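Thread: sanity check for a docking pose with flavin mononucleotide

Original post by kr_44:
Hi all, I'm comparing my docking run against an independent structure prediction. Below are the sequence and the ligand SMILES. Could someone generate the full complex and paste the structure tokens? I mainly care about where the ligand ends up relative to the chain.
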Amino acid sequence: MSEPTVIEPGFFEVIGTQRAMRRLKTDPVPESYIKKILWAATRAPSGGNRQGWRWLVVTDPAAKKQIQGWYNELWSKAIASGYGAGAGLPEEERLSNERVMKSATYLAEHMHEAPVLIFACTLTGNGDITAGSSIYPAVQNLMLAARALGLGTALTTVHRGHQDDIRKLLGIPESVETAALIPVGWPKGKFGTGFRKPVQDVTYWEHWGEKRP
Ligand SMILES: Cc1cc2nc3c(=O)[nH]c(=O)nc-3n(C[C@H](O)[C@H](O)[C@H](O)COP(=O)(O)O)c2cc1C
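Reply from moderator J.T.:
Ran it for you. Here is the predicted complex with flavin mononucleotide included:
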């Protein structure tokens, strides 16, 4: 398969338009692209530069279907227990929440259709937050690189409720945590800006509570 021509957007455009893209086409993604986004992931910082990450790339249709079944079961249970109800949120956040829930439900029902699922795994399963959190800058690097190439991704964690089953399915040792499950594929929709609060609303200067316009 010939590789699509990609005109990479500028750095800040990539950051400003990287968001959860959960509606993905089934079209295959060239392996070179997967390797490129994994290269970006592995350029990230990590505590003590330990680089205790492992990336498990899953493309097998039967494995993807099994994972989607577990994911969907957990997502449905979360919804049934009231997760994401969004009651009491200010209007703008309520609308954003509604969109997230709709698209997250779509992903739960269609995850196996994504051509690639990547598990971001961490070798440091000792519960230490510094060591454990080293995976997330790498995950963000991966998602930004994917965006630069025109690929959609979403950081998901719901699968963790079936982590033992996933370990068995994919031969992951018990000591390894699957910190995130990232579907990767060509997006059905367009990249756009997500709802984010303005910097001045979430930043204090010199003293807690002191804002600047
Ligand atoms: C730690 C973390 C866990 C997340 N877990 C899930 C998840 O399990 N399923 C899902 O669909 N999205 C998950 N997300 C994605 C968020 O819902 C998404 O980043 C947020 O709603 C912003 O969406 P936007 O980038 O499209 O604006 C997670 C994000 C983070 C940072």
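The radius of gyration is 18 Å. Hope that helps with the comparison, let us know if your pose agrees.
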